[in-house]
Design brief:
Elements lengths: L1 H72 L5 H10 L2 H4 L2 E6 L3 E4 L4 E3 L4 H5 L5 E2 L3 E2 L6 E11 L2 E10 L1 H6 L10 E5 L5 E4 L9 H6 L4 H15 L4 E7 L2 E9 L6 E7 H4 L1 H12 L4 H28 L9 H14 L4 E8 L2 H8 L1 H19 L4 E6 L2 E6 L20 H19 L1 E4 L2 E4 L2 E8 L6 H15 L7 E3 L2 H22 L3 E10 L5 E12 L2 E3 L1 H11 L1 H24 L5 E4 L2 H4 L4 H11 L7 E6 H4 L6 H11 L2 E7 L6 H6 L4 E4 L7 H13 L3 E4 L5 H10 L3 E2 L10 H9 L1
Length: 745
Amino acid sequence: MKKKYFITFIFISVIVLIMIVISYLYISYIQKLTDENTLKNLGELTKQDAVKIKNQIIQHKKILENIVNQVEKQDKITEKEIFNLYNENIANQEFSRLGIMYENGKTITSDNKEIDLSEDIDKFFNEDTLQISKSRKSKIDEEEINIYSKKTRINGKNIVILLVLETEKYEEIFAESIYNGKGYEYIINSSGEIIANSAKRENGYNLFNIIQTLKDNYNSKKLEEMKKQIKEYKNGQVKFNVSNKYYYTSYNYLNVNDWFLVILTPGSIVSQEYNRVLKITFVTSIIINIVILITAIYIIFSNKKKKEKLYKLAYIDNLTGLGNNNYFIERGTELLETQNTRCYLIIIDFDKFKAFNKKYGREEGDLLLKAFSQKLKNVFGENQIITRLTNDIFSILIKEDSKNINKKKAQIVISEKSTENKFREIEDVLENICNELSNITIDKIEYKILISMGIYEIKGSEKDIYETIDKALLAHSMAKGNYNKKFYIFNEDLENKMIKEHDIESIMEEGIQNKEFKIFYQPKFNSKTEKIEGAEALVRWERNEKLIPPNEFIPIFEKNKFIIKLDKYIFEEVCKDIKEWKYKYNRKIKISVNISKEHLLEKNFLEDYCKIANKYELKPNDLEIEITESAAIDENFDIIEILNKMKNLGFSIAIDDFGTGYSSLNMLQNMPIDVIKIDKSFINQSKMLETIMIIVRKMNLQTVAEGVETLEQVLRLRDLGVDLLQGYYFSKPVDKLSFEKYFKN
């Protein structure tokens, strides 16, 4: 009996041992398969993040190169002018500060700091190429920083231009949440020194040393192999075992200095589902065949699910469900490489989205983005490449084989017509698209939003997706903030226009400093006596003995807000002239001065104007302030409150271009205005003029007719009772000396 039990025990033991061996072999196989798939997928994620970081660094280097190129173009340039170049560049949005380092180590920064970098003289001055430093402590605020530097020469001296970047800028590029926040990303150099990381570990530690402390022969071999590959600038993946736990690691060269991106992820997080299956397999080894079948099916499903998770992390925008920037770059590149026919690239965003968030809240802003994303799919069709690039900026790549885009709402047919005719053909279509996208309904509440859209037609021979994005963004920038035109289509004229705008912006400050902006005066004459009773101050820009027309620089200044500074400059010059005429001719004349809509958004501009008037011994009622009717009906500020304040201070107020802005009579009645300037487009419309005069008489307002050019117009306007006349019939705008002749006559 004992022998029988012993044999049975041996038999059972052998069976159990066989099952254990089979299970062990099976587990080893599954673990190996898990490792291979995980490392492969992790390698893909590392590659994607490495591309993002590399592109960001390339952009940073371009910014520095651009600043250095602009500096080197100048024969002589001051520190202040260099800092102005920095402040006018997008660099001040990316970098903490700009520094100018001299050969003695003295360094001046754009935030008015002076520091001594003499210990770094050799490091910065011995290299002619653009350099990026390791992470280091800032001498100004102790922040972790990296320095982009480029040696150049100005005013006969060698200097180094330094752009200071907070190291956390690199960390912001990392994936927001790798495996539920339990995976870590590091930027290291070839020696293992940590330059930036998502683990909140202080930079400067050595990642290799941290792994080395594990004191495991297996890990040591893996680490040495990893260090060797990094020294040879090779990419790779490796798995480390740590106290019965394991970590998947992937590293990818950034093509910047000797920097690598390293992602380290706990195996328990990546493979928790696999581990559960393996435990069940081990415990239930007696039914191993069934488990093998179930596990095989589960592995296929789990691999697919994990790939989808990694894909979503790398390519899908979490909020809208649209593709992200990586998705657009990859899909767009594929399309351009495989398609030899034309496509359209559209860049679109909201105007004043931050203001929407501030007014309605972040949650409502997110709902707006979701609703807008759905509307894009409805209008353009889901078979287009529609992505959310960043914040409220979306891109749509319309493939050439698309027959239409929502037949009911908008249709774009890519034809063989000339570019000019074809673009003219789709103008109405684009207008319809803008109108359709401008109305968004959220929870039965309809919001009216303003959008800006840039369009670029991609020729079949173009393969560089980044170049096409730049051109679409160029067109988009023209539409941004332009209330008269919601979209722009890229063409060579547009590119030349942007270059011309940049040229104007680069010299506008110099124009103020050199007093290149000249005041011209266009007289206003009494319609009955034909004697001068006032004038309107206009500006002309004279540079290098040539006049730059106002229609070339005023729209640019309104867009970049420089118009505020110019308005104040004109106001002071006018006050100076009025004071001079007062003492010279013992006579005061009321001059009207235009102020832009942008100026009305400034809180203290009226106080500033009063101080200027007092400076020249004038009272506010010696001047007349003109605002356009379009500014008067703008919803971005309380115009009634501003005009009341203006009136209480004593200024005379005129509404310019009356009749063109569709203002309501009720609104005009509530405005404390003194003068209505009738737009020249109504001068020859007798019935319209009669209606306007009936209105202004009831409101007891003075009237000025602009653009008077013929005697017939003079007689008609006089008969209708218009008070003052202004136009070429009497005088074109003239310079100060020519205007003074009216005082002598």
